[in-house]
Amino acid sequence: MKFLLPLLLFTSYSYADTKSNSRAIDHAPIGVMADHYHKKGEAMISIRHSHMKMSDNSYNGDSISTQEILAMPNPLGSMPANLSVVPTEMIMKMTMVGGMYAPTNEITIMAMGMFMSKDMDLNTYQPMMNRNQLGTFSTSSSDMSDISLGVLIKLQESESSRWHGEVTLQKSVGSNDVKGEVLTPMNMNSSMILPYGMQPSDRGTKLVVGVTNVTKLSERWIWGSQLRRKSTLSNESWAFGDHTDLNTWIQYELNHAVALSSRLQIIHQDKISGNNPMIMAPVQTANTENYGGKEAYLGLGANFLMHLLPGEVDRFGLEVLLPLAQDKNNLQMDTDYKINFGYQKSF
Ligand SMILES: [Cu+2]
Fold this sequence. Notes:
Layout: H1 4-15, E1 43-59, E2 62-63, H2 66-70, E3 85-101, E4 107-125, E5 133-157, E6 161-172, E7 179-183, E8 189-193, E9 205-216, E10 221-234, E11 238-239, E12 243-255, E13 258-269, E14 273-274, E15 293-306, E16 314-328, E17 331-346
Antiparallel strand pairs: 1-2, 1-3, 1-17, 3-4, 4-5, 5-6, 6-9, 7-8, 9-10, 10-12, 11-14, 12-13, 13-15, 15-16, 16-17
The structure holds copper (II) ion.
């Protein structure tokens, strides 16, 4: 936390000369999507980045050893009879570029493009006998992931509380059949379609519906809540499961230019629907049952205002999320942390 102090002082100082009435606390923690609407005629651009790291594996929420994984049957075929490739680490990076514009006080239009990159390290083991490790390999993918167009509708606004709804249409546009070089249990390198979790997109069309409330608790404290559900309207051969996201956060206004936040995020996601018969390696990620589940995270973050570029004040947000509980379906990697940061500017 020590490194934050000079930053807080700097932002307080650099903000002191402004006459703008923007406040850092006006926006939710940076990882919360579609958290605010705009006044008539206002526009905003934003760029956000999120970084997630996963390692180790769990089965229905309980940690599981490599030996136990290797003893599990390969559900996608009899060759080999058991799982023989075990993921050890995964990094997922997402960059989102968005725009908002309010044609009226009641409606804000939102557009966003998302770019995704994924990297995974895996170990390959002998398929039978003493199951020695044959080697290690890495796979990666990166592509445009989704584009979305949405509308935020102001439902109610008073001095102490505001409510708005969201309806967004999201189209997954990236590829869903990225290939990678893998080390097979036969100790050969082979190029194959990577498992679902490594694909940048499922090429589905999704509907996002959400409702957000922000309540002023006192002069310096704010309590926000958001329920957001993403469901698949149509897809090609398979789709990531429908996703419900509940967020509730408390924000404290240190001064106009700095707001600190604490957030509880609860996620529920279904397993993958459909399948691609070409995805059939003896690895957990090739099985559509090994996706989705329940997760809870604690987020700690800060929003800053600074005058860097001409025009309206520059907004920055940083948030770190740590897992409180993970009950992912069947056999999956554990999430270690997520980091979100972003920049926003209004016009
Ligand atoms: Cu905005």
